[in-house]
Amino acid sequence: MIRVFNTLSRTKEDFVPVRENKVGMYLCGPTVYKPSHIGHMVGPVIFDTIKKYLVYSGYDVTFVVNITDVDDKLIQESNRRGLPMAEIAREMTEDYWSNLSAMGVDSIDKFPKATEYINDIIRFTQDLIDKGYAYESNGDVYFKVEKFEGYGKLSNRTLDQMLGEGGGTADRKSSSFDFALWKSAKPGEPSWDSPWGKGRPGWHIECSVMSCSLLGETFDIHGGGLDLQFPHHENEIAQSEARHGKPMAKYWMHNGLMQASSEIGKLGGRKTHAAAPKEGDLASQEGGKISKSKGASAFRDMLKTISPERIRFFLLSTHYRRPIDYSLERLAEVGKGLETFYRFFQRFERVTKRDFYTVPFPKTRVEGDAFIAQTAALKGSLGQAICAEREKFLAAMDDDFNTGKGIGILFDMLRALNRFIEERKLETEPTADGMEELTAAVSLFREVTAVLGLFLKKIEEPKAETADDSLSDALMAILIELRQSAKKNKDYATADRIRDALTPLGIKIEDRPTGPVWSRVKQ
Ligand SMILES: [Zn+2]
User: For 3-255, which CATH class?
Assistant: First the structure.
């Protein structure tokens, strides 16, 4: 039985889906106005793994992640860059998708965009007005928070403990707690016709509308970062439950946030990172949260020096409800841990003359159990040890998806596999029995690592940056600055000369909307 920590009840509950064997899962996605940074990958990697585990456990899962493609930040960015909002949203959605794909996040079934649901959003908002939960004011529509009983039940707050948004719209609201469902458009802003005049949807209503359209009025799992608990998720619940009169989602799951840290945790993490968090641990996480404003670099640049598998391994080494301490030291340490796996894969190939990545493995728990029952080679000491570790792994995953503990168990499996090769001297005196037992054990190892989305295909670790590269970076920064100031002074001859002189060196400068960037051209 899978158990899930439900933020609503603040306890672990047995996982029983609303509809037998079917699971609907919704995760709040990004506002696509800037390139993704590593913080944007945390939720998708965690919930992709949760979906993989549910599918492995026999459930039929529909996984939805929304894309917010209309929003204040997008409008600001559109003005700053002098490009249509839709153009920026398209570019940044592409960036997000390509990063997800690099990370092996391949289980998301639908990416609804807010702008594709405007009619549904208007209808939903009108229903809330008709039911007395919302009101129009000067072209805006607000949700009447005090009318909804149970507001604050997710984040465990009372109205006294909340502060209203205030700001420029304060005088249009009848209470400072109220939040916008529909915002009237200022001149020049992107807008849609509505019964309340030209405007655009608020952020919270999007998720209520799209989750209902795609997953139904009550679905199983609603996920998101801890920082979304209040007010975003509280508002989603108020909107959906006011309209439908039934629970919006059965299980609310919140992942810890990534925070910058110099702390060097112990890899595999069972001692420092895998323990489930204590209640109350979570409230303080928001402070150190990684965000673009704190200088996190674009994720696609990060992938030039760090393999996506290393990042995935790193993200899953921590219990999903704990904060993730991000530091280059931690990533380097994770890299060393991963190397021990890669070395074993090569060793396996030397012994068996077989590529690790081609060894077939069971795709579901039922298949895995049947494989164990049918495979005589697993009756030996290695097979028994790996079967026992597999049981422990599945117990950890059943217990609120404890991937941190699961990764610790992978290291134990690895030790057992290596010990077997040494004790049986398989590298020097291979035997058919020994190789058969080893290969069967590797099938089970692959079964559990596939659940985490790890070791599915061979990954080349990008070359680490060398001292030479950082010198090049510094020199190029100087040249780019010189070229920019030449262009500013309309000295195009000098600007062109700098660019042309770099061409034979295999260096290209591109003028992007965000500023010039340089790259090496493959020769
Ligand atoms: Zn949402």
Answer: alpha beta
